[in-house]
Amino acid sequence: MSLSIEVETPRLVLRQWRGADRQPFAALNADPLVTEYLLPLTGPESDALADRLAAGIDEHGWGFWAVEAPGVAPFIGFVGIKSLPPALPFAPGVEIGWRLARPHWGKGYASEAARAALKVGFEQVGLDEIVAFTATGNLRSRAVMERLGMAADPDPFDHPAVPEGSPLRLHVLYRIGRQDWRGLENGDAAPGGTPVAAA
Ligand SMILES: CC(C)(COP(=O)(O)OP(=O)(O)OC[C@H]1O[C@@H](n2cnc3c(N)ncnc32)[C@H](O)[C@@H]1OP(=O)(O)O)[C@@H](O)C(=O)NCCC(=O)NCCS
User: Fold this and answer.
1) 199 CA from centroid of ligand 1 (Å)
2) Which is deepest, 121, 122, 160, 180, by most CB within 10 Å?
3) Which residues form the N-acetyltransferase domain (predicted)?
4) pLDDT of residue 191
5) Is it true that domain 5-197 has CATH number 2.60.120.10?
6) Reported pTM
7) Is the separation of the CB atoms in 63 and 50 below 8 Å?
8) Which of 133, 140, 148, 169 to probe ligand 1 with, by most ligand atoms within 8 A of CB?
């Protein structure tokens, strides 16, 4: 696909990756607070991930976009939607995900960008459902899922890419369907689920 979708929100732009994003992306991937619930990445692994995410957007027109906050910073992290890795027990499907540099937490940027990504997924891509998952202890990420109106599956699952015995292996899966999303867009009450307090 030659045309990549680019998304503007009141404060953010979700766009294709640029070469200049690599350095700040490697810096955020080297921050132990950012990777507290993720598998850590070396500099070359971070560059390779940026390349894979950019290639995904080139291929499909959508993916995990680089996020820019105009007037604040040219790159603050990524937010977007992409196809699930086939090894996951609930694949195939499409997940929504996010990772921001620490100075940009606590401003509502992840939720703002994620709402725009859900809209692309349901309205432009035509998806019926979007999922999200994270290590059970990642309360900040779970709080974003709750803010979006996503509902948690009752049973956690072991992430196959996380080594056995790791405290990060147990994950929780959240889902939102097109109908629930549309209801929320129209101002209906959020579907069930107790909001998770952020750590
Ligand atoms: C997960 C992550 C993206 C969440 O970031 P976040 O900043 O907590 O989430 P949001 O952008 O939605 O911001 C919400 C916070 O901004 C506050 N906020 C401030 N100004 C706001 C505004 N104008 N609008 C909305 N919220 C605002 C909210 O009150 C909320 O504060 P709280 O954390 O004290 O409750 C971030 O912690 C991160 O990148 N973590 C590391 C990577 C990671 O774990 N990714 C997920 C892997 S599955």
Assistant:
1) 10
2) 121
3) 12-169
4) 47
5) no
6) 0.94
7) no
8) 140
